[in-house]
Design brief:
By secondary structure, the chain is mostly helical. Helices cover 80% and strands 0% of the residues.
Length: 203
């Protein structure tokens, strides 16, 4: 009886330590994300430097792929994993060097996006920002509750919303978003489905 009690106490203590570490790391990653966003808008040189590098098509294709570890972290109920992935997603726009010959549609779309971000806080900007936050929250919540089908539906809805918004405000240039968004959604669905299938088959 004593041995069982001690084992239970050790197990509970281990879980509490893991939870504390997870939450502490999540706070750190969240603060780093907030600092990155603040620097992005506070320093015009950093803002334009990041957008110059975002002209590289690789950054357009890699960003949606971070939704894979984002969803899996939520499925495993890891706060740190969620916030670490968001930090990587935010920073990935400037990982790659600016292209020598930028794609014209990408260039036009990013000009629109920069003007949108630097403009005043009107209704459209508030709604767009709110929809991004809401989409990520709904995706994370669905996977946190172990409802992958609902999570994938939320992913598809977010991708569709991104495409529609891009075409609405970017006009012809907005069509540049379709291929990266569709590629990212397809790969996310395949990889997440395969990983969760393996997890469920474990004894």
């Amino acid at each position: 009886g004593i041995l069982l009690t001690r084992s239970s106490d050790l197990f509970i203590s281990s879980l509490m330590n893991r939870s504390t570490i997870d939450r502490t790391a999540a706070i750190l990653f969240a603060l780093l994300s907030a600092a990155l966003i603040a620097a992005f808008f506070a320093d015009s040189r950093f803002f334009h430097w990041a957008f110059a590098r975002h002209h590289n098509p690789l950054s357009w294709y890699i960003r949606p792929l971070f939704l894979i570890p984002f969803c899996l972290a939520a499925y495993r109920r890891s706060h740190a994993g969620i916030w670490a992935t968001l930090l990587l997603l935010l920073s990935s726009m400037f990982w790659f060097p600016p292209p020598d010959y930028p794609n014209e549609r990408i260039r036009q779309f990013l000009v629109m996006e920069q003007n949108f971000l630097l403009g005043g806080w009107n209704t459209a900007k508030v709604l767009a920002s709110g929809m991004v936050a809401l989409s990520l929250t709904l995706i994370a919540t669905a996977f946190w509750q172990r409802k992958p089908r609902l999570g994938l539906f939320c992913l598809a809805a977010a991708a569709a919303g991104k495409i529609l918004w891009s075409i609405r405000y970017g006009r012809a240039a907005g069509y540049a978003v379709i291929l990266p968004a569709a590629f990212g959604l397809l790969l996310c669905a395949i990889v997440i489905g395969m990983v969760l299938h393996k997890i469920k088959r474990r004894p």
